[in-house]
Amino acid sequence: MIDLMKTTIRKMGNSQGVLIPKPFLAQLGLENEVEMNVEDDAIVLRRPRSRVREGWAEASKSIAASGDDKLVMGEFANDDDSELEW
């Protein structure tokens, strides 16, 4: 376990940020994303509970397999579609 460490808040474009040392990230298994919130007087970073769009591919395949993947709005053309050459 890594001991308490002080770091500085740095200007990053129009925002500010804190660099997180690699050993901290490794200890928690953090890679590209974190969940962040404020609890009492602390900013808390956690591993995301689920990845964005996790399970969407499987759900899409299931919908297609059941035949429930028809277009909701139906087909519609744009004004100049007749000029397109395929």
TrEMBL record:
PROSITE patterns given in the database record: SPOVT_ABRB
Pfam families in UniProt: MazE_antitoxin
Molecular-function GO terms, alphabetical: DNA binding
SUPFAM superfamilies given in the database record: AbrB/MazE/MraZ-like
UniProt keyword Secreted present: no
Taxonomy, superkingdom: Bacteria
Keywords: DNA-binding
Residue ranges constituting the SpoVT-AbrB domain according to the UniProt record: 7-50
Presence of keyword DNA repair: no
Protein name: Transcriptional regulator/antitoxin, MazE
